[in-house]
Q: What sequence folds into this?
């Protein structure tokens, strides 16, 4: 993390001199950094430069707990409204959750940082009816719970905002010229707007010592006032009590009540805080023997229609994605919105094997193309799924390839990926998984022909490290599909890949063929993004 001493130029010297504050620039691509870039866009670069030059970027014009009247100018990539300090004050932004551009608000300042303060919303004095309709809100905790930001917006507006996030991310982090970016397509909607989350992780703190010593005080079934089982309150690390969550699936909501009752009854037995897990799963009691599993698995049998809620981090969870069956460990990674996984995996497949263009005269019927440019590359035959988890992309895309290799850090996920391949009847001669750092895969795919290979990249939020990118560039697959839960690190990494090959010869240079967001988390500001890179 970059730090520098504050420029105290022009400040009183000697006695009474203010102690120098250390200015810590946010970690690049962190949510603070993303917010700061949004703030600069609102205040204007020239104004910001002036304040930075003066060295007064930490001198908030507001007192702690001051109430201010503001007009919101923009909505940031993290979902908060960004207002500016009233006329006559220095250029200064105020970040207020749950507010929308054009709205006039009253807010109370609670924290200040570089060129901005954070404030709690007190009142929306003039709402923006073109965007806000509070009757859309489906959750009684909305506005207090930190989970959702967008329930007052139409779903179309949410989708449009998420496209803007992708656009801004590539402008701010890719280090690419606008001319090297394809038109950023509209964000693909989630089929379910509520009731989609297949995983919930509420938490609670340990009881106070007095409650542990006096179990009778908590064993009457009534929830003590000090106990909150739920999620963080907006903008805080304080837990708020949550009895239901409308973005979670009905199966999870049905399990929340009984689980809460058990915890309340036994709370005196807990010595530490706990993070719970609720995962929507198919019934896992009928075991499937991978050695005898046939494809397609008979999903019409009861085993594949009865749903349960898994609440043990170590238990197996089972779900289907179209025709494919997946099992994974309750505590391990799996995408949290099942409804969008067929559209997502189909999209990746269609991006790798583009359909003929609607304007293509050889096409028998008009079809929609998934991509903007279709270079003449040989049909891919080999797939490398990096950061593969329990094999989502490797397995769902496997029919289109002769050979598939996956790699993933979690040995548990790799055990499941291997089992999932067997459950789905894919031969071990065709598909293999190994545990390790993603960059290790390039030492074992030496027999994959790069010109016929696709590398899928789906890393955690921090993106890829430089070692991975340099080995990827050495391997130089014809196609790279980068799926990301953090479009800012994706933009950074895609920029590195394109810039590293910008001066390369024919067939050695990557272009960004298509880019678009996917909405895995409706009602929140989060956006997933898929970038398709091709060698030209
Ligand atoms: C966003 S998830 C994607 C998983 C999978 N593609 C899916 O869609 O289910 C990222 C995965 O990367 C794994 N991971 C994290 N760091 C890694 C690394 N250095 N090398 C390989 N895998 C890593 C995590 O364990 C996690 O399973």
A:
């Amino acid at each position: 993390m970059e730090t520098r001493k504050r420029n105290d130029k022009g400040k009183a010297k000697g006695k009474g001199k203010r102690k120098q504050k250390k200015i810590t620039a946010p970690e690049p691509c962190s949510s603070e950094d993303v917010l700061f870039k949004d703030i600069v866009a609102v205040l204007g670069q020239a104004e910001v430069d002036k304040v930075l030059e003066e060295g007064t970027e930490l001198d908030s014009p507001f007192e702690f707990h001051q109430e201010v009247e503001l007009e919101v100018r923009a909505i940031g990539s993290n979902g908060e409204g960004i207002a500016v300090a009233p006329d006559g004050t220095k250029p200064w932004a105020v970040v207020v959750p749950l507010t929308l551009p054009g709205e006039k608000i009253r807010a109370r300042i609670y924290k200040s940082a570089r060129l901005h303060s954070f404030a709690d919303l007190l009142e929306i004095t003039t709402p923006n009816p073109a965007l806000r309709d509070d009757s859309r809100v489906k959750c009684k905790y909305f506005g207090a719970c930190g989970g959702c930001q967008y329930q007052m917006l139409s779903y179309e507006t949410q989708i449009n905002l998420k496209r803007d996030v992708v656009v801004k991310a590539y402008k701010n982090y890719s280090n690419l010229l606008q001319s090297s970016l394809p038109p950023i397509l509209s964000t693909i909607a989630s089929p379910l707007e509520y009731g989609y989350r297949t995983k919930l992780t509420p938490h609670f703190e340990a009881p106070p010592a007095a409650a542990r010593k006096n179990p009778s005080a908590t064993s009457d079934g009534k929830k003590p006032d000090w106990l909150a089982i739920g999620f963080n309150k907006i903008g805080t690390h304080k837990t708020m009590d949550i009895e239901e969550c409308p973005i979670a699936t009905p199966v999870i909501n049905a399990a929340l009540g009984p689980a809460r009752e058990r915890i309340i009854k036994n709370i005196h037995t807990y010595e530490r805080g706990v993070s719970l897990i609720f995962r929507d799963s198919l019934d896992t009691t009928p075991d499937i023997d991978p050695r005898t599993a046939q494809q397609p698995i008979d999903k019409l049998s009861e085993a594949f229609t009865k749903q349960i809620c898994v609440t043990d981090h170590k238990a197996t969870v089972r779900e289907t994605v179209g025709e494919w069956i997946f099992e994974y460990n309750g505590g391990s990674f799996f995408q949290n919105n099942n409804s969008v996984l067929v559209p997502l995996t189909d999209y990746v497949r269609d991006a790798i094997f583009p359909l003929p263009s609607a304007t293509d005269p050889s096409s028998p019927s008009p079809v929609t193309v998934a991509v903007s440019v279709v270079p003449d590359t040989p049909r891919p035959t080999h797939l490398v799924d990096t950061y593969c988890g329990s094999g989502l992309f490797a397995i769902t895309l496997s029919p289109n390839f002769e050979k598939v290799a996956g790699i993933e850090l979690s040995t548990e996920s790799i055990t499941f990926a291997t089992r999932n391949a067997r459950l789905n009847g894919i031969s071990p001669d065709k598909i293999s998984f190994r545990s390790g750092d993603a960059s290790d895969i390039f030492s074992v795919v030496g027999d994959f022909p790069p010109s016929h290979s696709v590398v899928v990249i789906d890393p955690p939020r921090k993106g890829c490290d430089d070692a991975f990118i340099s080995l990827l560039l050495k391997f130089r697959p014809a196609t790279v599909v980068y799926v990301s839960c953090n479009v800012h690190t994706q933009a950074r990494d895609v920029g590195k890949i394109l810039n590293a090959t910008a001066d390369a010869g024919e067939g050695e240079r990557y272009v960004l063929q298509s880019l678009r967001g996917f909405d895995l988390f409706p009602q929140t500001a989060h956006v997933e993004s898929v970038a398709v890179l091709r060698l030209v």
